[in-house]
Request: fold
Amino acid sequence: MSIEHLLRKWTPQVLGTVVRRFRDFAAAEDAVQEASLAAALQWPREGIPDNPRAWLTQVAMRRMADHTRSESARRRRESEAAHQAAQEAAYTAESTAIETAPQQDDTLVLLFMCCHPALTPSSAIALTLRAVGGLTTAEIASAFLVPEATMAQRISRAKQTIKTSGVPFRLPTTQERAQRLRAVLHVLYLIFNEGYTSSSGPQLQRTELSNEAIRLARIVHRLLPDDGDVAGLLALMLLTDARRGARTAPDGELIPLTKQDRTLWGQEEIREGVALISATLSKGSIGPYQLQAAIAAIHDEAARPEDTDWPQILALYELLKRMSDNPMVMLNHAVAAAMVHGPTAGLDLLHALDQDGRLKDHHRLDAVRAHLLELAGDHQAAITHYKIAAGRTASLPERNYLMTQAARLRDLQMEPRP
Amino acid sequence: MKYMLMMSATKEGFDWFSKWPKEDLRANFAFMQAFDKELKDAGVLVAAEGLAWPDQAVIVRAAKDGTPITDGVFPETKEFLAGYWIVDVDSPEEAYRIAARASLAPAPAGTPQTMPIEVRQVMSGPPEELL
Reply:
């Protein structure tokens, strides 16, 4: 195992140990990051220690002790002796509590902490990647294309938010567990998407993000093997990631699902994802991630686009629609309906979305409308909506794709009719 | 998602700015410095630059042989970019809030107290799955 992998593997466990000992998540996280950086410098020269985890823990503990000493010196200077004594008494009481607390899995506790609902999505993502994923601030900054100082500040603010919100370092209670787990899975999903959807050119390093999301989802799945949502999310990631190599041309051009070279799809990921989702569904566990994974599996199992089992996809979207009030699901449902019952049926469903209003000004609504209008033979209207969609997207490859679609239809109009 | 926040002004606007009283200038400089720091500390600042004044601005076009032809004559009404910030935020509303903060940069008493800030999304969003 490479040094980088070792560090990433041990980060959450070492951090958990240090947090338990010192009860200061923010400082412990800094100490572990420093220990990892020290290891990254020393190990290549001096060799990997026999017990990397113990080495990291020891270095992090030493940093923590230094930190605590300088903090208490500062506090002594600043505050009255009585106040200090009170704090020390509280600290002792607290440490006794840690010693007697039952051992829990720290990785899971850390994940719940980093994906705390008090954090904005971008802060939760950054903190998760650092504290649980073991990535350095520089790596996270480069993956999100922001300066390192900005990312450092974002992480430090996130830790501050956690500190002031007073989240205890333990698993959430049974009552809040389901909701908190949903937040964790959502953050992992966002990390995956961030990497999956940008797989070319200068953003090559971002694919690391989807690998990292899959790695973290695997860890959660190992810790909670009976949770259907976790299995569903992992399956969805694998079944989506399997298509990554076929999704963009070497020059970065986007290739839609129907035009992809399916021999480039990752068969091993597909096998693993299909097995995982089949096992999960057979246990009767049906949630949004499971259904999306099932849909991805149907796409992945079709050797040619025309082999796609659209009626089944449509049925799954109908289930999904009943389960979650999400306009994107309504949009995908309309596409599936068009593939089964013809473009007019799909266009009719888009009217409901117009009324709904939540996707107003969203480029995806116009892109889908353009596609369905084209299938219905109304090229003029399709051109109009491809153009509107191009003006609304915030993705450069996608804008290029949509502009090209409009241009292609204009060329067709120019050709003399036979 | 990333947004670019832009301040622009006509040449006349730049001339006016250069005639502000000392105290007003100081207040403006201090505001801009504090504002940049605020964005840095919030963990959202991607880049911020001020540009040289338009006096030296030129438009360049290539001649037939590819060599540059410069042109420096602009109509009075033309707006010049004065400076910009790029921020990385979770929503457009957050970008608008930051732009509104920038818009409050202090100006001399008796003049418009808010400055227009153009907000544009940077093409850094992820593309969707295409069928």
The CA atoms of residues 192 and 210 of chain A lie 4 Å apart.
